[in-house]
Automatic annotation (TrEMBL):
Residues 121-147 are annotated as: Disordered. Gene3D superfamilies: Fido-like domain. It comes from the Bacteria. This is Oxidoreductase. Residues 104-249 form the Fido domain. It comes from Streptomyces abyssalis.
């Protein structure tokens, strides 16, 4: 694909973006080079997934301790337990959809939402973008979400970018996928969970984090809801400054996720010694 045909190509040239890309690559390469990864990568991946799910649920308002997630088996039908269960299911499902993403990203998004919702939902709303007049629940930007027609058009445009491929760095594509979904809020519920799971799919599928050991969700939660919302507002503005700030924010989140996994590796190493 030529740069003139690639809608994401200009984003890579925004001030600070290349620095963020380079910094992320160094952080990811560093954790992949850890000696524990040579022997226990599956354990590290499983722990990263659990911590990522916990953090994603925290951003939805269900901030549970990690040990509570390990202990619980019933996550209930309402309130925080339901949110935590949805985050766990969605994070786990993301790893099963890599082969579908490049050919049919909209199918992946539908599946992620269906899994998050735990079934068909009232009125068959789960697993499909919202229709005109249907409400949106969950935390989000202060502004009203775009209407259903705009959502449909922008989802189609996003899907074309994914299917056609982009020369933009993986961090840029992952940030755009996350930002677009979190801003559009295309489903009636669990949009944040779906957006962060889709970002995970991009990071793994692009080869930047092929074993899914750098939970960006952890870094998003660590930076806090206010910073997350502010950065998303920059993305929603569409300005070069806002887009660059959002990509930088996502880069920091990924680096913090890599740092979290470094701590996991160090703990495993001490335990094995």
């Amino acid at each position: 694909m030529s740069s003139t045909a690639d809608p994401l190509s200009p984003l890579g040239a925004l001030p600070g973006v290349q620095d963020a890309v380079d910094s992320v690559r160094k952080s990811v390469d560093r954790i992949y080079g850890h000696r524990v990864m040579r022997r226990r990568s599956s354990e590290v991946s499983a722990e990263a997934a659990l911590r990522g799910a916990r953090a994603s649920a925290a951003l939805e308002g269900a901030d549970w301790a990690l040990e509570e997630l390990r202990r619980r088996t019933d996550f209930g039908d309402e309130g925080e337990p339901r949110t935590v269960g949805a985050a766990l299911r969605t994070t786990a499902e993301a790893g099963q959809l890599l082969d579908v993403w490049g050919q049919s990203p909209l199918r992946v998004l539908a599946r992620l939402h269906l899994v998050a919702a735990g079934g068909a939902g009232p009125g068959g709303t789960a697993g499909r973008p919202r229709l005109k007049g249907e409400p949106v629940t969950g935390p989000g930007l202060e502004s009203q979400p775009p209407d259903a027609d705009e959502v449909a058009a922008r989802l189609d445009a996003l899907a074309r970018i994914v299917v056609d491929g982009s020369e933009a760095p993986a961090l840029v594509l992952a940030s755009v996928v996350h930002g677009e979904l979190a801003t559009l809020r295309p489903f009636g519920s669990y949009n944040g969970l779906v957006a962060r799971a889709a970002e995970r799919v991009v990071l793994v599928g692009s080869g930047l984090d092929p074993k899914s050991i750098c939970p960006a969700e952890v870094g998003q939660a660590e930076q806090g809801w206010d910073a997350y919302e502010r950065a998303l507002g920059g993305y929603a503005s569409g300005t070069p400054e806002g887009m660059a700030a959002w990509i930088g924010h996502c880069g920091t989140a990924l680096e913090l996720g890599a740092r979290e996994t470094t701590a996991v590796c160090e703990a495993l190493q001490r335990g094995a010694a």
